[in-house]
Amino acid sequence: MMIIFRFLILSLLIIQAAVARVDSIEIIKHRHELNLVKDDKILKTYKISLGRQPVGQKMDKDDKRTPEGHYEIRRKLSDTDYHKSLILNYPTPEQKAEADAHDINIGDHLCIHGIRRYLQYVPYFLQKFHRWIDWTAGCIAVANSEIDEIFEEVEEGTPVVIYE
């Protein structure tokens, strides 16, 4: 009887985890927000840090801007210099073609990540201070405990929309 009870509880947990997955991620740069969205409803909002020059569209790989547009999660990396990372499919073919037409290098890497590995033992309440400034080279940063949550809620292929 106990085995059946444990099996039922485990089954419910697995079903709940499958249902909890988000449909998309929405990033609103001017609000410094990352929203997890399911069925057109915001499930959770996180405060974020962006590139050092967050206003406007990315025009060059070294301009420190966070790009705007429609992307998707290409890969989930669980062990990086920034704790965990969600690699996006940046640039899109259209962005790459536009940049090539103007002989501009807009870079080839964009991700949502935690804070630097050497800061991982800093307590969460101190990790949140990273949001007071925009410090990335163009990526989207959250605290490590937050990227852990986000990492569990998304799959490769999850759409990510970045708005001004």
Report on this model:
The chain has 164 residues and is an alpha+beta fold. It has one domain (2-163): L,D-transpeptidase catalytic domain-like. It is 25% helix and 28% strand. It has helices at residues 2-19, 93-101, 124-127, 144-153, and strands at 24-28, 33-38, 41-47, 69-80, 83-88, 111-113, 140-141, 159-163. An eight-stranded mixed beta sheet has the order 3-2-1-8-4-5-6-7, covered by helices on one side. The radius of gyration is 18 Å and the shape is globular. It starts with a helix and ends with a strand. The model has no long low-confidence stretch (mean pLDDT 87).
Keywords summarizing the entry:
8 strands; 164 residues; 4 helices; single chain; alpha+beta; L,D-transpeptidase catalytic domain-like; 8-stranded mixed sheet; 25% helix
Figure out the total of helices. 4
Category by helix and strand content: alpha+beta
The top level CATH class name: Mainly Beta
Number of domains: 1
Note the main sheet: 8 strands, mixed
**Percentage of residues in DSSP E strands:** 25-35%
Short description:
By secondary structure, the chain is of the alpha+beta class. Helix content is 25%, strand content 28%.
List the SSEs and their pairings:
Layout (H helix, E strand, L loop, with lengths): L1 H18 L4 E5 L4 E6 L2 E7 L21 E12 L2 E6 L4 H9 L9 E3 L10 H4 L12 E2 L2 H10 L5 E5 L1
Parallel strand pairs: 1-8, 6-7
Antiparallel strand pairs: 1-2, 2-3, 4-5, 4-8, 5-6
